[in-house]
Amino acid sequence: MRILLIEDDSLVSDAITRGLVGSGYVVDAVPDAESVAARLADTHYDLAIVDLGLPGEDGLSLVRRLRRSGSSLPLLIVTARDGLDDRINALDLGADDYLVKPFALPELAARCRALIRRATAAAANEIVVGGLRIDLAGRRALNVAGEVLELTRREWSILECLAHHSGRVVSKDRLTQAITGWSEDISGNAIEVHVSRLRSKLGGSATVRGIRGLGYRLEDG
Amino acid sequence: MANRKHPASVHSRLLSYLLAPLLLLLVAGVAVDHHVIVSPIHSAFDHSLSRAALAIVARIHPTPDGQAQVALPQHPPPPLRAMAGEHFFYRVSLPDGQTIAGVPDLPLAPDSQSADGFSYTNIHYRGEPVRLASYRTNETGSPITVTVAETPLRRDRAVHRLDVAFLINDTIQMAAVLVIALIGIRIALRPLQRLSRQIAGRPPLALSQLSVEQVPSEVLPVVESLNTLLGRVRDSVLSQQHFLANAAHQLRTPLTGLKAQLEVLNRDTAGTPLQERIGLLQGGVDRLAHTANQLLTLARAEPSVHRASHFTSIELPRLIGEVIDSSLDRALAHGIDLGADSQAAQVTGVYWLLHELLINLIDNAIRHTPAGGNITLRCGIEDGRAFLEVDDNGSGIPLAERAKVRERFYRGAGSTGDGCGLGLAIVDEVARVHRAQLSIHDGRSGQGTRMRIDFPDAG
What does DSSP assign to residue B353? Predict the structure, then answer.
């Protein structure tokens, strides 16, 4: 996996490069937006990390230019600006995620992993959470051992919905909406029953954590 | 503001300025009216008195010896009759003073040489004020003077009645003028009230210009000065925001570099004695980063920084969901069960500030709750007001400390190293921006702390 880092501050750039290399990525760092085109022309990247406060052309303008040129390269914005306007602006322009400085390296690595996984999953039409592989096209889930899990349609719908937002809390209401296609009156308790059956079928591949008063979250093993 | 209860309101001042002259005018009006009616009434009554004198003259007959004789009937005719409480006197006398009939001691009015032979005067007679008329005539053949007098009870009563009528009439007129003036004042002040409504109806921190439409020319300078002021405030707010964005960037970028470099260094030196010192450095940098973040948040939570456009309608259950989503890992890392108990509720607010408020309350709760404890976020409506609550079953905040914890940089006795003492100051500031109230209670489970934010009435 190859990552292009566009960051002008050498202290930050050096640390991110070292950190991500340590996590197994290949990282190319450039200090300004002007050097990006040349890099993209001859190298395939799985992700670009863009600092918004660049000298010369700023990060937002770079994001806009990349998206206008039709690039689908996943873009992670890192910035010192944390205003809501900035965030919405960046996401509207086509950035995929947004991380405010100062952040911890493990968090950056996690975001990179998630973005790359999402892009790969979209291409392969599958989502991987921990040891669990969810094949969206084939509507089936495989555990660590590669065995296909026997799921009812409702359990599948719940898993699919959780997998689409893996690592995020999904409310009970949302899960209810996801399965009401098959039944008109599904109560919150019914969701709990389906989730607990799903849990036992997942085994140790992935965990469905219940959040009191809110919903569920699909987590790595 | 044209508040009628306010002593210095334009309304009451105009009213008091009007009231005194109107009262003076009333008194003067009644006095003039009195003066104008008194003389016609007096001449009317004098005329009636003169009829009485003429009626007496008609009854004077010369005796065969040339002496005048008065024959008055037992019951005098109407002009000679006195009303109850009224006295009537007459005297018929000769030029030499001899009295032919009537009361001899009745004085005569001085001869005024008038064409009709009548002369009038006011005198005191038998202890009473009387109106006196003397008629000098030769009709009976020889010069004779008929003098009549009456107590002025009837004419006084007539004048008095008319005075009262005028007073009532003038008072009604004045009251009408006053009411019309009041209505006029109210109508004239309407543009002012519209202006105050326009100002009062603005979102709390709106800095947009006031409309000068329909503003009367007298108030226009005030509105224009206000607009100039608002413009200046907006400029300074914008430059403050610009400054904060710059400060944030200048602080956060090197902090990010330091943090990340130390993490890499920590990994690269795994298993060496350097690790311990790197760990200390990391702790210091983390604290620095946290404090810088909190300071920036606090500065940006200042009410003056927020434009009306930042205020949106926020569903509290959704906000709670998102806050839990982003705080769950921290709570789980401390072995704390983080959950929600949300009822439908909606407020108008600045989303990221309320998000920041809840994050700070949760951080605070996590610091005071041991592993195995739980933290519950609540929202709903009570007495028509929306509320947010963060309830933990941890160690709680002693009563004596509850007032102090809102102060900036205050850290409680049991605080651990990672807090900078700005968390609750931020919460307090954000609450202020939303005109909401922060209160600290005991946890619902009987132990721990319940931080509660009460929003103002919807609207």
Answer: H
